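Quick one, T. Sequence first:
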Amino acid sequence: MKYVISIVIVCLLTNICFAQQKKVDDYIQVGLENSPLLKDLKNQHLVNLIDSLKILAGYKTQINGVSTNNYAPSLNGWGYDYAVTNGTNFAQQIVATKKLVSKENLNNQHEAIKLLNESLNIAGKISTQDLIKTINAQYITAYGVYQQISFNNNINDLLLKQQTLLKNFTEKGIYKQADYLNILVASQQQAIVIEQLKAQFQNEVAALNYLCGIKDTNQVQLSNPTIKIEPIAMVENTVYYQQFTVDSFKLKNANEQIKYNYKPKVNLYADGGYLSTFAENAYKNFGASAGVSITVPIYDGNQRKMQTDRIKIAEQTRQDYRDFFKKQYDQQILQLVQQLNATDKIIAVSEKQIGYAEMLMEAQKKLVESGDARITDYILSINNYLFAKNTVTQNAINKFQIINQINYWNKK
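Structure tokens:
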């Protein structure tokens, strides 16, 4: 039996010694590295780079090999008009075409790609901030349970010592059997609470690993989150507001592109090769040609105005969302600051209560050790201490969560 107990103790000590010490930054780093969304946004940057190169390639000289072979038979005057078909057309040509575009038009198209990349940058920052906030929140929750386990273990150790002492006093007749049973029941209840908290802690850590894409079931010890509040930023300086600014530039860019689309278009072309109807001297039908085509928009059913009107409506919608966000931001920050101040006050009052509760518990403990205490009073003092300690822990966790929210909205 002693051998089995020794093995159990060794296993427990091994688990404690080899439990990994984890910080919130460890989880954030892995979570950001594993995020498929952030990887997707980076890949979209590469796609936009390719699109930018495609714009340049589209205005370079395009060279194609063209083969056209046509035969229109006629019999006894029946068939296609020979003046139209020439009977037979046989063409094997190399054709080169080039679109002429103004530098301003080309720059505007590249600006559209640049603005799209800026939107991706902002989306990446917001997605990063979302993930950091979520990981922070889950880490804080798990850390709160971890803290509860710690101080509940301390109380349990105290109860176990008092249980042994009270057992000796009961055997000597100093305390009644009911007193010993009261402390025994309190100790067992405390042990159940600790096991429940351990199970909850494992679930919270598992949820944290799930968020970060970590496949790990090892025991961990969590360090203090050390999350500090960042200076409150003006709404115009936050990353969330930047998207409204970029959207404004994108709409202006789209409006400029409409203007360029309705300017005259010039295409140059040249070809060389073999083109023949085989009607006469087919071997002499090698040659070349060149030309220019000009397209001047005259009337398109008023589509240009429709496109411009759509952009004006989109701009008004953008302004409405922007103005509403500014109001939301100010209200959210004010509300979170109020919650933070209220939580600080609750913590201050509760810490005073902890001091008094601890003094009362220590006084009752000495009375128990001298055989002069009522066990029910001692257990009540322990429960009061636990309540005060738990109140401070819960509000400290709430404070971390509030700071996490404020820092989320403050992202620049």
